[in-house]
Structures are given as C-alpha cells and as structure tokens.
Write a structure and sequence with these properties.
The chain is of the alpha+beta class and 277 residues long. It has helices at 5-12, 34-72, 75-128, 133-161; strands at residues 167-175, 185-192, 195-203, 209-211, 215-218, 226-234, 237-246, 257-262, 270-276. Residues 2-277 form the FAM65 N-terminal domain.
C-alpha cells in the first residue's frame, strides 16, 4: 500500500468539527459510497465555480467604474468603490481556496478508492490460489490494506462534508387546488439524516396559508436525501397525505432554487419550497 492512513490525514491536514462530521466516534459506518461522493463533488464544484464566475463579473464591473470615477475625481465615491473591490477580491480568494481544498480532498479520495479496489481484486485472486503459508500471509496483509483504505475513504468523506455549506430551506406553502379547503390543517415533516424540521400550517378563509415556521437551516451531507412527509390533521386524528424523498445534489447553486414536490402520486397536492445554498 503506497499511501498509508497517517499520510493521507497529514497530507490533507483536516480535523472536521464535530458539528459537521457525520463520522463521529462510536457511530462509524465503514461503508464508503464512491459514486455518491463523485455526484456530490461534481455538483459542489459546479456550484462553487458559478459563485466564482458571478463574483469575478462583479469585480470586473466595479473595476470599470473605479477607473471612470478616478478620472472624474469624485473622491468619496472613489474610496467607497475601492473598499467594495477589496471586499470582492478577498471573497474571490476565499472561493478559490475553497475549490482547491475540495479538489485536494477528492483527489485523495480517488487514490484511496483505486488502492482499495486493487487490494480487493488481489485478495480475491489469492483466495482462489492453493493455500500456502505465503498466500495466507498475503491475504492477511491485503485484508489489512482494504480496511485501511476503507477507513481513509470514510475519513475523507467526513472531511469533505465540512465544505458543503448550508441549505436555507423556506416554506412556500402547499398547492392542491380543490384538495385544499379553508380550515384544513397540515403538518409537514422534513428530515435530512438526523436533522429534523416539523411545522404546522392552516388554510385560511381567503385561501392564504399560515405556518408556525418559515425557514430552517440544514447542514448537507454526502449520503442522506431529504425525506418529506405531509399529514392532514383532523381533530385528534392524522391522515397521511404522502411521503417523498428529494435528492439534494441539484441544490448546490448560487441562485435560490424553487422546488415543487409532488406529495401525492397523482400530484394533486404539491409542496413548494425555496432552497438557498
């Protein structure tokens, strides 16, 4: 094994905060998912690059105004623009560092994935060969290599989650046409891993909706999808309207995402959300 666990951890130099690390001690699950990590990495990198392009365009615009203002000698406005330019430049450098860190983590993850695949293939080949002392020793060593690569991959997955940011989810209401009547009460339950959001709403006489909460912040992770459950409240009874899951990979965008989710199979009741990354 050319890249040991300690060298991976010292090379990426990361200590994920407990609040963001889904791989806390005592709750480790050695089950890395390379395809899912690749999907989230590509979505994350695309979103970060879009942020970078937007701020680069803003910097170009401010720089042009800066030159014009300097020629016109409006001193106070000139210095105000100068402060804005410096602020945008700092943010661009921060984004560039963020992108490079994400790429470094994913590169280390891919190396460990290839090493694990190679060790797994060799382990299978040795298990089919005649049992000798040398083959048994090789199998033990290969098993150890697979375990170490798996541990490294899970560690890097936890470290990568630190760089996923936050999802600000806003409740925009239910859409149900004839299915929603004045006086109806609903409960919406949104789950992302261990994070939960439970809110209740009522259909008013003017067809508007009131909800006891409007926004919730979720910390995205690599493996969990949003699970949304809607129930109708009738006195002491509850009637399940529908349960759906929603992939979060499309939410990594600098622009707010308007999400419309079909709660019932026929789409007679929909849930409208807005997600800001």
């Amino acid at each position: 094994k050319s890249l040991s666990r300690s060298s991976v951890r010292s090379r990426v130099s990361l200590k994920p905060p407990k609040a963001y690390n889904s791989l806390q001690k005592g709750a480790l699950v050695w089950d890395p998912k390379p395809l899912q990590v690749k999907k989230i990495f590509e979505a994350l990198k695309k979103g970060l690059n879009e942020y970078l392009e937007a701020h680069q365009a803003e910097l170009d615009y401010l720089s042009g105004r800066h030159k014009d203002t300097k020629r016109n000698s409006r001193l106070a406005f000139y210095y105000d623009l100068d402060k804005q330019i410096r602020s945008v430049e700092r943010y661009i450098r921060k984004l560039e560092f963020h992108i490079s860190k994400v790429e470094e983590l994913y590169e280390a993850y891919c190396i460990q994935c290839r090493l694990r695949d190679g060790a797994t293939n060799m382990k299978q080949a040795f298990s089919l060969s005649p049992a000798t002392k040398a083959s048994r020793e090789s199998l033990v060593e290969l098993y150890r290599n697979v375990q170490e690569c798996t541990e490294d991959m899970c560690f890097i997955e936890g470290a990568l989650e630190v760089h996923l940011g936050e999802f600000h989810v806003k409740m925009k209401g239910l859409v149900g046409f004839a299915r929603l009547c004045p006086g109806d009460q609903y409960e919406v339950f949104v789950r992302l891993g261990r994070q939960k959001w439970r809110l209740r709403g009522k259909i008013e006489t003017d067809d508007s909706q009131t909800w006891d909460e409007e926004e919730k912040i979720f910390i995205p992770n690599l493996h969990e999808k949003f699970e949304i459950k809607v129930t109708e409240l009738r006195g002491l009874a509850t009637i399940l309207v529908g349960v759906v899951t929603c992939d979060s990979s499309s939410f990594f965008s600098p622009k707010p995402q308007a999400i419309v989710v079909d709660i019932t199979e026929l789409g007679t009741i929909k849930l409208r959300l807005e997600v800001l990354w």
